[in-house]
Amino acid sequence: GEDVEQSLFLSVREGDSSVINCTYTDSSSTYLYWYKQEPGAGLQLLTYIFSNMDMKQDQRLTVLLNKKDKHLSLRIADTQTGDSAIYFCAETLYSSASKIIFGSGTRLSIRP
Amino acid sequence: EAQVTQNPRYLITVTGKKLTVTCSQNMNHEYMSWYRQDPGLGLRQIYYSMNVEVTDKGDVPEGYKVSRKEKRNFPLILESPSPNQTSLYFCASRRGLGDNEQFFGPGTRLTVL
Question: What is the share, in percent, of chain A residues with pLDDT greater than 70?
Fold first, then answer.
């Protein structure tokens, strides 16, 4: 079945790296995404990775994909207070490009 | 400015009173969809539309209707709202199915008493 799972909360110290993890069950994923939702706002696409890639880097963001374990992670280097948000992992499937399946979201909080 | 707008942003209503949440995008996108966001459940798709006059059910369509008479607008209609439809609703659009970037509206927080 289709399922995307994330832990609900993560707390990190300002300046440290944050690693947000996600697991998915459907091996026919085509694209995997990370979205950011700031308080009172809609979701904003941060980055995405095609399923035949292992890694994608974009400034402070690094996405790692382990297809064998169906595990996706988002690393945020030098975490800042502006990174406080809910981060959603999501996937689209080969069988249904019209549908994006979202995880429950990980709330990232930053400690001074 | 390219954007997706929703109205109203906040709404408190009573059971059974029909309501419409409007959604409009100014990017000439073909694909639009509605989601609801509930704590611990992430976003679940209610309905989507691949173009004018083409709509289809998502994962949780019960109790909702949509229409797509024009490309830019995709209203969500609750004919007889119930308390279990209390949620945060997001409209989203993207250029087409093959496009990876989906733009989200700011959300509509609906409370049904």
Answer: 94
